[in-house]
Specification:
It is a single chain. By secondary structure, the chain is α/β, with parallel strands linked by helices. The protein has helices spanning about 10-20, 50-60, 75-80, 80-100, 140-160, 185-195, 210-220, 245-255, 280-285, 290-300; strands spanning about 1-5, 25-30, 40-45, 65, 105-110, 125-130, 165-170, 170, 200, 205, 210, 230-235, 240, 260-265, 275. α4 (about 80-100) runs parallel beside α5 (about 140-160).
Length: about 300
């Protein structure tokens, strides 16, 4: 099978490509914006239809894994026009070319797509499943990822596209940069290693999924004999922890002297995320197996 990974030099794409390289059943091509020289690498941008079209012509994919996106909530708030073009129009470009090349599509969705659905009318936390109706968008990132997902679903139902979405929830692991535009785990570890203060939002809760587990879930989707035009799976780990307790755990695992500073929740942050992963377990036979403690320890040498 010939596979094209858009955004293949990113955090998830790099790990997926590494896992696919362990088999001889696939020829994998990578499409990204970075100036590198690699085998089966095609440089371009999903916003530039012609460079993406060239990538499809070279790769001739049977399957496209669409990971090219602006993945930072903070960055999307700072540059919303670029977020809309990249996450929404970029996805439409990919969909159009998948239809032209009769290629199956697997899309990297996000837990942010559910928006305010995580909170009930009385303010109590709600556990969302794949069929939970979306709530009000809480950020440009969540809104644009949702729009792309809806574009993909529409084209699957109406225009013959065969597609799956994996809605990732809080992935972490080696290779993720620890700057202010990345996830809490990456930022906390980066600060802990340098013994700098760690700022954690109070009254927030997440479940963190180690990248190897998530990639295994993606592989199950890629190798699935899909019978429906569109399928969607929540991919994550059911091990909730508050941001403050996460910071404490990181400090403990890394033997850091970093002080922990508590901060209020920013307007675009969903305070508590709770997701059901029952569908992935029932249909794919998949569930996350790496505990947060084990995952953090595996990152000590990263």
């Amino acid at each position: 099978m010939r596979i094209l990974i858009t955004g293949g030099l990113g955090f998830i794409g790099t790990n997926l490509r590494r896992a696919l390289a362990a088999t001889t059943d696939h020829e994998v091509f990578v499409f990204d914006r970075e100036r590198v020289v690699q085998e089966n690498y095609i440089r371009g941008d999903v916003n530039d239809y012609f460079s993406l079209e060239r990538a499809f012509a070279v790769a001739r994919p049977d399957l496209v894994v669409h990971y090219a996106a602006m993945v930072s909530r903070k960055e999307c708030e700072e540059t919303p026009d670029l977020a809309i073009r990249t996450n929404t129009i970029g996805a439409q470009n990919v969909v159009h070319l998948c239809l032209n090349h009769n290629a199956r599509l697997v899309y990297a969705g996000s837990s942010e797509e559910y928006g305010s659905a995580y909170q009930g009318p009385d303010g109590t936390p709600v556990t969302v499943a794949e069929d939970t109706p979306f709530g009000i968008p809480t950020s440009y990132y969540g809104m644009t990822k949702r729009h792309a997902d809806e574009l993909i679903r529409y084209n699957a139902v109406q225009n013959g596209l065969v597609a799956s979405t994996t809605r990732f929830c809080m992935l972490y692991g080696p290779g993720e940069l620890g700057n202010t535009y990345r996830s809490a785990v990456a930022r906390f570890i980066d600060s802990a290693k340098a013994n700098r203060p760690i700022t954690a939002h109070v009254n927030t809760e997440r479940s963190w999924c180690f990248i190897d587990d998530a990639v295994e879930g993606v592989l199950r989707v890629l190798h699935r004999d899909q019978t429906e035009p569109y399928e969607v799976y929540n991919i994550g780990n059911d091990e909730p922890i508050s941001a403050v307790d996460l910071a404490k755990k990181v400090v403990g695992v890394f033997g850091s002297s970093s002080p922990i500073l508590e901060a209020g929740v920013e307007p675009t942050i969903i305070p508590i995320k709770r997701m059901s992963f029952a569908r992935a377990k029932a249909v794919l036979g998949w569930e996350a197996r790496t505990s947060l403690e084990e995952g953090l320890r595996r990152m000590q040498g990263a």
